[in-house]
Amino acid sequence: MSSTLAQAGHPFTRLARNVLGVFKLRIGVMIMITGLAGMAVTPGASPSAVQWLVLALAVFLSSASAGAFNQYYEYESDRLMARTRNRAFVTGALAHTPVWLWLIAALLAGSVLATWAVINATSALFVFLGAFFYAGVYTVWLKRRTWLNIVIGGLAGSFAVLAGAAAVDPILGPLPLLLALVLFLWTPPHFWSLAIANQSDYAAAGVPMLPVVVGPQRAAQIVFASTLALLLASLLPAWFGAGPVYVVGALVGGSYFLYKAWRLARKPCRATAMGAFFASLVQLSLLLAAASIDSMIR
Hints:
There is one protein chain. This protein is mainly alpha-helical. The chain folds into two domains: 13-171, Tetracycline Repressor, domain 2; 173-298, Four Helix Bundle (Hemerythrin (Met), subunit A). 80% of the residues lie in helices and 0% in strands. The protein is built from 15 helices and no strands. The protein has helices spanning 2-22, 25-41, 49-73, 75-78, 88-91, 99-118, 121-142, 149-153, 155-168, 174-197, 199-205, 210-214, 216-234, 244-266, 270-297. Helix 6 (99-118) packs antiparallel against helix 7 (121-142) and helix 10 (174-197) packs antiparallel against helix 13.
């Protein structure tokens, strides 16, 4: 009997997995954490528990809406890439219908309006801009036009930091602005590392990612230079009130990412590119954790 029930549950499990995959929830969680970190590092009166919760959900759901739009808009080109050809809209596991656009719009509107009502208009504006830059500026406008696509589109993560900071103080101070700068500088080497590993995919899909335009060797050198700039920028908050916990986290994570980027520059291949990609995730996780812990003990 239990085996029969388990088998009957399989279609629902697959449907749930496909729906959750469309919304890119892992990215949403990371973006949500950056928003909370922006709130944590900003000096001022601590927001209420309800405001913390609303900010977290708003950033998470707005990011999810942008991720879903990305998959909805790109389902034709996604079938050309090995990395994306099994996405739900590509395989037909989920119907590619306009209903999705209504759902995406409702999620974004609800996130923005909830932030406006419970927190303030400035924070709500940044919540909107984060989703807009990923869905509109990056996905629709820039992705197939220029290798600078991910540089400008990377502002989406910076806006999450600013949304959290504005929840504490709409007049942004140096610490959240610098953390937003770090997120802006983090996105290109993070994504370009992945693009080097999947260069043939992007070439087949006609997407002018950096390694497709300049080749993997030159792209790897740019990743190393970008990672060095990221490490240096991540230390700037030390001159504006960040404490030793933050500095240690920034140094350890940044140095590890820089080492992996150096290995990538020496020998560009899929293995070193994925090593740099995963190192970027370690670096950002350490940085955000250190920033949050540092602000709590200061």
